[in-house]
Specification:
The structure is a homodimer. Chain A is of the alpha/beta class. Chain A contains 11 helices and 6 strands. Chain A has a 6-stranded mixed sheet, with helices on both faces. Chain A is globular, with a radius of gyration of 17 Å.
């Protein structure tokens, strides 16, 4: 079969991809948040993210400051953990952790009749108050974050709220956006571990963890 | 903030999600492929997958037969690997592997001026002819599969073609669909490691690796 392939070198393909995204954007995206929005579109090929991403007023500044300060990252999904750029993390000495497969989390979830995602938030709250929490799967993680924040038990430096789905997903994001906490949220049903990882990577690159490539 | 949450038990939320997807489907989906299409929509909240998934005539049968026969799975992304249900794999004694972080693959890619994704396909071809190959990221993986298949060096039992992006992605999928090989492909630009993992999990569940939950 004859198909014309773009002969760009592997290292140029990401750059070319971002050029295509830029040329096809139908919505005005402010320059400061563009690296994040474009990376999410790059990871999904879904331009609806040009319209559904929400940033708290201080989100970008808080995110970059937290990363530069070496604040650790917790996430509710091993897929998002796998997708976060480890080399970029290491520039800042940051560890990213997911507790979802931990035996103590499974036990706590059973005992409290909750989800492992909610129990993982409780474990993060014990490990340290100073963290970025990244949700790419479970609305129950966002709901538990909401509860602990309103009870003044934790104060995350940033919440990335990108669970995906049909039950409690929209609502859990609205809860987070009602708080006075730095957040980056994909409003609506969409999101996912790939989206969550893309947001984190974009932040890491903005903070200087890697060349932005566009 | 007062928000009405669905009080379904965690184990019922997936079931409820699939009911919502079913009720909102605007396209006729044949019953046999529905478990796969619905699981992809479940993982993305993107109903465009109801229209863009392509199955070769023998794909479902080949997929289930391969899984029941314990054929191993190779994938081009550690995120997809993280998202594949390990408990369901173990029912069939299947191993899933990703070579992207392997030192020999990085070296081969440098030496051959290709991508690690393409070099990973070469490594899979050496490890064994009998495999399912799952692409959730790199069109170069699909292109390399196409080359080795046309050279009659490999004959994968199934190709899951779900790379995402803007450069060579559409074309690489068309190459695969031009072959006489069992495939499940997301036509167009969309796909991703989450989509790839969802397709694999749907196949594992169809083969009996877990209750389908709808």
């Amino acid at each position: 079969m004859k198909i014309q392939l773009d002969q760009s070198l592997p290292e140029d393909i990401e750059k070319r991809s971002f050029e295509i995204i830029e040329s096809e954007l139908k919505t005005y995206i402010p320059e400061d948040i563009k690296p994040i929005v474009k990376r999410v579109i790059h990871t999904t090929a879904d331009f609806s993210y040009a319209e559904n991403m929400r940033f708290s007023p201080e989100a970008l500044e808080a995110a970059v400051k937290a990363v530069k300060g070496g604040v650790n990252i917790f996430t509710d999904t091993n897929m998002a953990l796998a997708g976060i750029n480890k080399k970029a993390l290491s520039v800042f000495g940051i560890e990213a952790k997911c507790f979802m497969s931990d035996e103590d989390v499974a036990r706590a979830a059973r005992e409290n009749k909750t989800t492992r995602a909610a129990a993982s938030v409780d474990k993060a709250a014990i490990e340290g108050k100073d963290f970025i929490y990244v949700v790419g799967n479970a609305p129950t993680a966002l709901i538990r974050l909401y509860e602990l924040i309103t009870e003044e038990k934790i104060k995350p430096r940033l919440i990335v709220g990108a669970p995906v789905g049909f039950v409690n997903v929209v609502e859990s994001k609205e809860l987070i956006m009602s708080l006075n906490v730095p957040y980056i949220v994909c409003a609506g049903r969409k999101g996912g571990s790939n989206v969550a990882a893309a947001i984190v990577n974009a932040i890491l690159y903005m903070a200087g963890g890697r060349k932005q490539n566009f």
